[in-house]
């Protein structure tokens, strides 16, 4: 038996892929998460109201999603609904996160695979031919940064936001600040689109080079978003079967009926399935499930995707293209919200803390995230974090096996395998800090 | 571009959340001045080469962390502990409590996985650190001040001095509202409004980015120079005196809130030496 181990870079956190080959046959392909800090356990005993500041530290990439999920779980437990303006500002916060995350995945994590470099920071201007590459790097960082700036505007702190609070948000956004941000985003939107176009083109070239967009089989999809257009504040999760039919629609409190979770002995992250069937979460799941993005430029891209690949589309490298579509959507939607009044109404509802149970659902960039808390005497007695990357674990391993079989036979192991392994994992944009907490 | 003549630096992420790395990416000024040769989050490279500066984020939580840390430190001229986790264990310290530590017990059926350590540990338990850059995470400005060794970077001593909210003598809360209770009045000190803000003695340099929008400072930058070389009870005592003076909150409530998990993540930064017997980190080494 030959064991091939590939450490994976350009993803969030520590992970490796281990492929076992016997007599030219790929026996297994495992995705191992190799770190763990123990959040689910160690938040026991923490005063409930401190969860919105502690849980963003699960992950500095997905912190905004944890911040909002924690606040929503507590609001559910206390039986309160935040006012509309607070919801709007939280949506802005989540859009900032979507921009930051999708830009990071597109341009920092996966662009190097498309242009054949180790890192976006190694794209040098030295040769004339690579001048475009260097410009891409500079521009990509600027596009990414405006996501962070939007998080700062709507959420206070830029990595671990603080402005969402139980009952609402601490304050509105002053018109001058909103307008200044809107202007900056308007100016940057054409550049973001140009980057997405460039990315789309480079991806097509890569597809031609490797001969596939990913030849894994179709899967089930999971997302919590609106049916006709995106909704950043839904309270239900839907599951779509491979043919495109929605087969389940459930509340976060019922997740155990639909999602089977199992620990694994070779990874600190578990795996979940839809009643034993392989699930996919993240951008492709959302684009497969949504009719329209309800913003003009993003809808053009969505139609282009549908025209080229059908709906639902299954090849895994389309996850990456879908992130591009969502990047454009998040720009457009944030610009719309920023042109509305954001400091004209109450931003919080009064509440009285009480013991009990609460569920908080957020569609994070990587898929539906649930925080579930049980509270006694004001303290957390148990906490569960239902993590989107965990929904993707079986899909990642299945796709890895398919890719490995493509590059391994009885004569040789093609050196392209290492690159393929990286491309497959990055298509799912897994977050290991979240998956293992 | 003369990329290959630029000083090389590497970023080693141990067990942490990558928030420090994300912050570094927001500080894009370094892109033209440094060559980033190792940072698994954004660069594919197998090991840390010889570098001028090694930034280490995250705490030491498993045996692979120890191995990577020691190997990387050998190849660096200067080692910087970045963020609360690398300096003192950070949020992972909540896992050091006896009642929750069972989660780290080894399990014999686990295969090919790093072994978890009984406690989360700061990196200077294993290697010498030249500079400490506290913050959860440190802001992009702080990263730039560090990398460019900016002489003119002179932040205020405390978060309080950077905040700009007015302290009122006659507005004394009788109880704390907790860390978040909805509405926050603009321009008025958060302690006056009943929030247990520890910005009065927390190290400045973050530009008060939490307190300005209305969340009390939880002390992520650690103590100001006045307390950095003292035991943590000195810092705690100072905050206690501020709360006693500015509020009518009963002493037992003050005692309790100062020991709440969210603050304890940060209040013991630099000075939790009870079990290590180590000397304090000198303030000259802290940015």
Give the proportion of residues in helices of chain B: 25-40%
Average pLDDT confidence of chain A is 93
Overall pLDDT level of chain B: 90
Q: What's the β-strand tally of chain A?
A: 14
Helix share bin of chain A: 40-55%
Number of helices of chain B: 9
Spatial gap, N to C terminus of chain B: 30 Å
Global Rg of chain B: 20 Å
Quaternary organization: heterodimer
Total helix count of chain A?
Answer: 13
Return Rg of chain A in Å. Answer: 21 Å
Main beta sheet of chain A: strand number and arrangement?
Answer: 4 strands, mixed
Low-confidence stretches of chain B: none
Helix/strand/pairing category of chain B: alpha/beta
Strand content of chain B: 5-15%
Q: If you had to describe this structure to a student in words, what would you say it looks like?
A:
- The complex is a heterodimer of chains A (437) and B (287).
- Chain A is 46% helix and 18% strand.
- With 437 residues, chain A is an alpha+beta fold.
- Chain A starts with a strand and ends with a helix.
- Chain B has helices at residues 19-26, 63-74, 83-88, 140-147, 159-163, 225-228, 232-246, 251-258, 261-267; strands at residues 8-13, 35-38, 51-57, 60-62, 76-82, 116-121, 131-133.
- Chain B is α/β, with parallel strands linked by helices and 287 residues long.
- Chain B is globular and about 60 Å long.
- Chains A and B meet through helix 1, helix 2, helix 4 and helix 5 of A and helix 1 and helix 9 of B.
Short characterization:
The complex is a heterodimer of chains A (437) and B (287). With 437 residues, chain A is an alpha+beta fold.
């Amino acid at each position: 038996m030959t064991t091939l181990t590939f450490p994976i870079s350009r993803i969030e956190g520590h992970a490796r892929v281990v492929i076992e080959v016997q007599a030219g046959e790929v026996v297994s392909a495992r995705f191992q998460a190799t770190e763990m800090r123990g959040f689910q356990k160690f938040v026991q005993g923490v005063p409930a109201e401190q969860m919105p500041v502690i849980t963003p530290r699960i992950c500095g990439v997905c912190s905004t999603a944890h911040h909002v999920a924690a606040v929503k779980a507590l609001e559910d437990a206390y039986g309160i609904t935040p006012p509309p303006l607070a919801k709007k500002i939280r949506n802005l916060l989540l859009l900032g996160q979507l921009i930051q995350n999708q830009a990071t995945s597109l341009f920092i994590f996966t662009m190097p695979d498309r242009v054949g470099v180790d890192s976006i920071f190694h794209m040098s201007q030295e040769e004339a031919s690579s001048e475009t590459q260097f410009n891409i790097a500079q521009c990509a960082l600027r596009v990414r940064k405006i996501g962070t700036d939007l998080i700062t505007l709507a959420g206070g702190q830029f990595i671990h936001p603080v402005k969402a609070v139980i009952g609402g948000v601490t304050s509105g956004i002053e018109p001058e600040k909103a307008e200044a941000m809107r202007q900056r985003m308007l100016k940057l939107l054409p550049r973001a689109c140009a980057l997405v176009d460039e990315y789309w083109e480079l991806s097509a070239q890569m597809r031609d080079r490797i001969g596939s967009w990913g030849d894994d089989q179709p899967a089930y999809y999971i997302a919590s978003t609106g049916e006709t257009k995106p909704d950043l504040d839904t309270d239900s999760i839907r599951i779509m079967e491979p043919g495109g039919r929605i087969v389940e629609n459930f509340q976060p409190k019922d997740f155990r009926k639909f999602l089977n979770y199992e620990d694994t002995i070779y990874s600190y992250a578990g795996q979940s399935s839809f009643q034993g069937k392989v699930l996919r979460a993240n951008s492709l799941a959302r684009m497969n499930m949504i009719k329209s993005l309800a913003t003009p430029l993003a809808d053009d891209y969505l139609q282009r995707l549908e025209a080229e690949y059908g709906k639902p589309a299954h090849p895994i490298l389309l996850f990456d293209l879908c992130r591009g579509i969502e990047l454009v959507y998040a720009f457009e939607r944030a610009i719309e919200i920023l042109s509305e009044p954001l400091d004209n109404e109450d931003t919080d509802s009064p509440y009285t803390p009480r013991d009990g149970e609460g569920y908080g659902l957020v569609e994070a960039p990587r898929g539906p995230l649930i925080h579930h808390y049980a509270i006694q005497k004001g303290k957390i007695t148990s906490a569960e974090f239902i993590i989107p990357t965990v929904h993707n674990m079986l899909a990642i391993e299945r796709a890895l096996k398919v890719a490995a079989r493509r590059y391994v036979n009885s004569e040789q192991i093609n050196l392209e395998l290492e690159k393929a392994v990286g491309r497959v994992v990055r298509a799912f944009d897994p977050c290991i800090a979240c998956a293992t907490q | 571009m003369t990329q290959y003549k630029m000083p090389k630096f590497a970023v080693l992420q141990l067990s942490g959340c990558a928030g420090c790395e994300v912050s570094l990416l927001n500080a894009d000024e370094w892109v033209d001045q440094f060559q980033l040769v190792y940072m698994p989050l954004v660069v594919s490279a197998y090991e840390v080469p010889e570098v001028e500066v090694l930034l280490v984020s995250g705490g030491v939580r498993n045996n692979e962390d120890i191995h990577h840390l020691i190997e990387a430190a050998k190849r660096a001229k200067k080692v910087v502990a970045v963020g609360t986790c690398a300096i003192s264990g950070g949020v992972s310290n909540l896992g050091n409590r006896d009642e929750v530590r069972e989660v780290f017990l080894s399990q014999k059926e686990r295969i090919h996985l790093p072994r978890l350590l009984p406690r989360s540990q700061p990196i200077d338990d294993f290697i010498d650190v030249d500079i400490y850059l506290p913050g959860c995470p440190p802001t992009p400005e702080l990263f730039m001040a560090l990398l460019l060794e900016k002489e003119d970077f002179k932040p205020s001593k405390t978060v309080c001095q950077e905040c700009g909210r007015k302290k009122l003598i006659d507005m004394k809360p009788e109880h704390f509202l907790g860390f978040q209770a909805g509405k926050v009045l603009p321009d008025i000190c958060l302690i006056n409004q009943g929030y247990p803000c520890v910005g009065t003695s927390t190290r400045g340099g973050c530009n008060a980015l939490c307190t300005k929008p209305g969340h009390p400072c939880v002390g992520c930058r650690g103590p100001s120079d006045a307390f950095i070389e003292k035991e943590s009870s000195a810092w705690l005592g100072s905050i206690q005196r501020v709360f006693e003076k500015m509020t009518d909150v009963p002493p037992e409530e003050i005692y309790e809130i100062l020991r709440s998990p969210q603050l304890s993540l940060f209040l013991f930064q630099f000075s939790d030496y009870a079990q290590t017997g180590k000397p304090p980190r000198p303030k000259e080494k802290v940015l």
